[in-house]
Structures are given as C-alpha cells and as structure tokens.
Amino acid sequence: MTAAALVALLLLEAKHFLFDFVLQSPYQAKNKGVYGHPGGILHAALHVLGTAVVMVFFLTDLPLLLVFLIAEFLIHYHTDWAKAHLVKRSAPARGAEFWSIFGFDQFVHHATYAAIVFAALSS
C-alpha cells in the first residue's frame, strides 16, 4: 500500500503541475476570481478530469471515486477563487503577502491530494 500511495500521490502532483502551470490558459487564470465564471469552473473541472484518470487505477469503487471528484472540484474551485479574490483585494503586488496567499493555495491543493490518496487506499 505504501508504494501505491506514493505512486498515486506523485501522479496527482504531476497532474497538478500540468493543469495549474503548463496547460492553464490565460482565460482560466484571469477569471478564477470571478465567482461562477466559466473560466474558473473549466479550470477546476480539468483538474478533476486529471484526478479521475489517475485514481481510476487505484480505486475500483466508482461511487467513492465520484465522491472524491466532487469534493476535489468544490475544494479546488473555491480555493482558487479565494486566492484570486484575496490577491486582488489585499496583495496585488508580488510581495510577501502575495507569496503567502499563493503558497497556502498550493498547500490546500496538495493536502487535498494526500487526503484523496489516504481515503482511497484506506477504503
């Protein structure tokens, strides 16, 4: 189980890098701070799609996988929205406050993946 957990986590981290940094379009990045905007919804949905592709190899309980995917969508969407909203309001310059907000945003995403892997492989 330890090896499977590490592989799953590593794959989710690679997926996160791809969808948050390499493949994220300016349309998605610009609109994540507008609640309900299709750009932010698309961004979170693409993350969920990537998580589904990874986790289908580690979790055969499809209803449970669906619960994890819905939870990830809600957490990812709202974390990104809050980060964008906070940056606009209180840290528009890229100083220490910006990096603290950005770092916490990334921490929440990575903690979500750890929780998904732990719950999936403990079930």
What does this protein structure show overall?
Helix 1 (2-22) runs antiparallel to helix 5, helix 3 runs antiparallel to helix 4 (62-90) and helix 4 packs antiparallel against helix 5. The longest helix has 29 residues, at 62-90. The chain has helices at residues 2-22, 26-31, 38-55, 62-90, 96-122. 82% of the residues lie in helices and 0% in strands. The radius of gyration is 15 Å and the shape is globular. The chain has one domain. 20% of the residues are buried. The chain has 5 helices and no strands. It has 123 residues and is mainly α. InterPro entries: Phage_phiKZ_Orf197. The chain crosses the membrane at residues 48-75. Keywords: Membrane, Transmembrane, Transmembrane helix.
List the helices and strands and how they pair.
Elements: H1 2-22, H2 26-31, H3 38-55, H4 62-90, H5 96-122
Give a brief outline of the structure.
With 123 residues, the protein is mostly helical.
**How many helical elements?**
5
Low-confidence stretches: none
Helix and strand element order: HHHHH
Strand content: under 5%
How many distinct folded domains? 1
Instruction: Characterize the overall form.
Output: globular
User: Would you report the number of β strands?
Assistant: 0
Structural class: mainly alpha
Largest sheet: none
- First and last CA, distance: 11 Å
Radius of gyration: 15 Å
Q: What proportion of the residues is helical, as a percent range? A: over 70%
Q: State mean pLDDT (0 to 100 scale).
A: 95
Transmembrane segments: 48-75
Protein name: DUF3307 domain-containing protein
InterPro entries: Phage_phiKZ_Orf197
Keywords: Membrane, Transmembrane, Transmembrane helix
